């Protein structure tokens, strides 16, 4: 880089920082004044209020005066908050005000324009922007184009510019460290710097090095369904977090973080990504796992967790049934079944009062089916509830003169009477009136559980209904379509009933169970949710997706995944794409492929992609590193020694390490053995655990979406990772590594590693 350019930019940076300093001083002053004003109002609050309570109009004046003082106080409070927030932003800006510059000429203009791009915009007068927000329409040119004509989208349509210069800066703590000019999309040097650094317990934003394909994902506003298929480490997660920040900026004022929800693979992952949006100056969206989403609706039932789902061994028939229960076909079958329920077949439960039915199930059924045939299930349940509440109100009257009520009134203590008056004693005309009042209060209290049962639809019987749905299925669904016999189905239903009795449900049943319940109760879904993001889509089945869609009927969807990283061998993701295409309008569906893997060094990506049968489309990013090591050991102890040796190497080089075992049981054992050998490691037991610094031992099914400097794959022996069955699982684990990968096995090496060309790794025998 020419000397003059660096000096020029250094000077420019100095000028901008001076202006930021001026803005800081002003914001400090504003904050101080707002604080003073606030203090003064608080102190003089009652001096400044005109108090006059001698007449009605005087009291009104007093109330108005208090209100005015309160309003002034809250205005000062707002301006104080505003000033402190601005101050905070400017202080951040001082460290790294911008990261890029572009020069371009707009069509029809005679002069070139220069803009600087940073995390947020900054201007020294209303029309004079010194820094543009990376999300501003014009900033897209920086990410999207090579030199020459570049198009970009504005809220008013497409625009084009002639791009003449693209310059990148490294600025640290307000000091210019380096300047690069590039005619590539985003110069490799900056990306290399970003990728070469050590991993952290928290993911970082990628704002200064967003790649062109990623930019498409981030800025897409047209699709109802945006589907991103991308190799491991291709930046899917990084891109969607940036996308959330983009959408919050683009629709500022109309969209808030509470209207965006992201389904993530596990709680560890939530932890891992929770700093990205705050770093970009935005609030985090709602984030949960599907398990949490389902679980909060049915607290009394234990839903199958990740580990149970992962460890499950199914017979061939069970596998087919499981697959069917996770399909769109079954989703439609449940919808159809619910339609029948509008005519007959709804199961009810008695609502009990003092050991006897307040409303018998027969009576409830009679009410439920008394409505006109045009009523849908939602209207029916509402009508039934209203009729039951009317019955309840009549019951209050009819119970007045019963013996239990009389006895209860007679035996009331003074305190209890006081309480029934709600500490507000009243005058009664005579004793009878007082009795009636107290009796009503007692009856209403006693009937409260009945009222709750009505309002909470406890007269429905979801368990019985779900079982009936399963039992009756062969009568209206041809089991031949799924290659299952009636006996096999019967056996399966019996098992589900047993599980329900134990308050257990598998994940596939849970979705169907909840969906049926929502249909029965006429639930409409959350219409205020505007964007739904689902990461690691390959681990969902079509039923779950359809159910999520049902829950958020007005939202736009962004689905991200890698069909090569399905960790559940029982479920196939291949059919997922075709099922998806029937769920959304094809004209509003866009698919983006990300083929380049940024996470790992070239050596690691070249190695891991060989594990897959169809891995050739994965491109490695040219970042150089050491060859992966495949260590084949004579016995268990040797294998452990190889791990310890690598841990020492990692520690010396300041690399974070993760040891990934296939099952939880295996991880528990290694963690124990490593501790006994004096190594300090943390075992990740469940998906709800927090991420910690230092070496961790994590089971394969919890490593989803995470990354580590150095990955050690434990026991890749032939019987642990089998050909066909475990290809994707092993690929997923190995692709967690950024800079270093060690695969250790005892005796026979898994054929999945054996088939990798030997020049792609270094073999060690111990
Ligand atoms: N444009 C980029 N600039 C800098 N770093 C990037 C870029 N894109 C991706 N990365 C980095 O590459 C790594 C992998 O990205 P990310 O976790 O988003 O990939 P992914 O596609 O979600 O992977 P997986 O499917 O394996 O979970 C992260 O460390 C991320 O910060």
Automatic annotation (TrEMBL):
One of its GO terms (cellular component) is cytosol. The keyword Coiled coil applies. Residues 17-44 form a coiled coil. GO terms for biological process: recombinational repair. Keywords: ATP-binding, Coiled coil, Helicase, Hydrolase, Nucleotide-binding. One of its GO terms (molecular function) is hydrolase activity. Residues 209-601 form the UvrD-like helicase ATP-binding domain. ATP binds at residues 230-237. Pfam families: UvrD-helicase, UvrD_C_2. PANTHER family: DNA HELICASE IV, UVRD / RECB / PCRA DNA HELICASE FAMILY MEMBER. This is Superfamily I DNA RNA helicase. It comes from Pediococcus stilesii.
């Amino acid at each position: 880089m020419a000397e003059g350019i660096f000096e020029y930019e250094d000077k420019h940076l100095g000028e901008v920082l001076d202006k930021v300093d001026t803005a800081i001083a002003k914001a400090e002053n504003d904050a101080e004044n707002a604080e003073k004003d606030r203090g003064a109002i608080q102190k003089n609050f009652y001096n400044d209020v005109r108090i006059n309570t001698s007449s009605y109009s005087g009291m009104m004046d007093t109330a108005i005066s208090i209100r005015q003082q309160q309003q002034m106080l809250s205005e000062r409070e707002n301006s104080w908050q505003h000033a402190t927030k601005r101050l905070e932003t400017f202080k951040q800006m001082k460290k790294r005000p911008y990261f890029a510059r572009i020069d371009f000429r707009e069509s029809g203009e005679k002069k070139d324009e220069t803009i600087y791009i940073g995390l947020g915009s900054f201007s020294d007068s209303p029309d004079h922007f010194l820094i543009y927000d990376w999300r501003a329409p014009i900033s897209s040119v920086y990410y999207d184009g090579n030199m020459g004509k570049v198009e970009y989208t504005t809220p008013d349509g497409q625009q084009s510019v002639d791009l003449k210069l693209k310059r990148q800066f490294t600025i640290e703590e307000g000091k210019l460290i380096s300047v690069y000019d590039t005619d590539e999309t985003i110069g490799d040097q900056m990306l290399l710097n970003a990728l070469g650094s050590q991993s952290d317990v928290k993911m970082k934003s990628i704002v200064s090095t967003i790649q062109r394909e990623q930019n498409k994902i981030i800025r897409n506003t047209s699709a109802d369904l945006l589907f991103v298929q991308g190799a491991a480490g291709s930046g899917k997660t990084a891109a969607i977090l940036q996308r959330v920040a983009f959408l919050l900026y683009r629709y500022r004022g109309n969209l808030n973080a509470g209207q965006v929800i992201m389904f993530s693979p596990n709680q560890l992952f939530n932890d891992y990504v929770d700093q990205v949006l705050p770093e970009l100056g935005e609030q985090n969206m709602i984030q949960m796992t599907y398990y949490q989403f389902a679980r909060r609706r049915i607290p009394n039932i234990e839903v199958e967790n990740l580990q149970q789902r992962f460890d499950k061994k199914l017979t061939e028939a069970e596998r087919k049934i499981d697959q069917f229960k996770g399909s769109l076909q079954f989703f439609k079958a449940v919808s159809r079944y619910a339609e029948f329920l509008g005519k007959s077949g709804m199961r009810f439960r008695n609502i009990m009062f003092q050991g006897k039915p307040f409303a018998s199930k027969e009576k409830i059924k009679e009410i439920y089916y008394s409505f006109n045939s045009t009523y849908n299930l939602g209207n029916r349940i509402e009508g039934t509830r209203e009729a039951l509440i009317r019955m309840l109100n009549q019951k209050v009257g009819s119970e007045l003169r019963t013996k239990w009520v009389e006895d209860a009134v007679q035996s009331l203590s003074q305190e209890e009477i006081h309480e029934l008056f709600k500490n507000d004693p009243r005058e009664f005309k005579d004793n009878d009136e007082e009795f009636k009042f107290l009796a009503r209060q007692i009856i209403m209290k006693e009937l409260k559980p009945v009222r709750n049962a009505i309002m909470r639809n406890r007269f429905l019987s979801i368990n019985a209904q779900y079982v009936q749905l399963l039992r009756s299925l062969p009568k209206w669904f041809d089991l031949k379509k799924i290659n299952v016999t009636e006996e096999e189905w019967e056996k399966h239903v019996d098992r589900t009933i047993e599980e329900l009795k134990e308050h257990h449900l598998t994940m596939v049943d849970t979705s169907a169970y909840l969906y049926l319940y929502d249909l029965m109760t006429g639930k409409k879904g959350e219409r205020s949710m505007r964007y739904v993001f689902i990461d690691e889509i390959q681990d969902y089945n079509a039923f779950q997706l359809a159910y999520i869609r049902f829950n958020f009927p007005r939202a736009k969807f962004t689905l991200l995944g890698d069909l090569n990283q399905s960790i559940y061998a029982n479920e196939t993701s291949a059919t997922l794409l075709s099922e998806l295409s029937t769920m959304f309008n094809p004209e509003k569906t866009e698919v983006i492929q990300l083929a380049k893997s940024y996470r790992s060094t070239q050596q690691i990506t070249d190695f891991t992609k060989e594990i897959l049968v169809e891995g050739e489309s994965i491109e490695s990013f040219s970042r150089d590193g050491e060859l992966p090591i495949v260590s084949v050991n004579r016995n268990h102890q040797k294998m452990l020694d190889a791990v310890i040796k690598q841990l020492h190497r990692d520690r010396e080089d300041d690399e974070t390490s993760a040891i990934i075992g296939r099952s939880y049981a295996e991880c528990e054992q290694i963690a124990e053995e490593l501790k006994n050998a004096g190594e300090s490691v943390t075992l990740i037991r469940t998906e709800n655990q927090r991420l910690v610094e230092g070496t961790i031992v994590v089971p394969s099914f919890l490593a989803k979406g995470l990354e580590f400097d150095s990955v050690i794959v434990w026991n890749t022996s032939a019987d642990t990772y089998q050909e066909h069955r475990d290809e994707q699982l092993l690929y997923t684990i190995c692709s967690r590594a950024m800079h270093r990968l060690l695969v250790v096995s005892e005796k026979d090496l898994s054929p999945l590693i054996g088939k990798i060309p030997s020049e792609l790794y270094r073999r060690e025998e111990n």
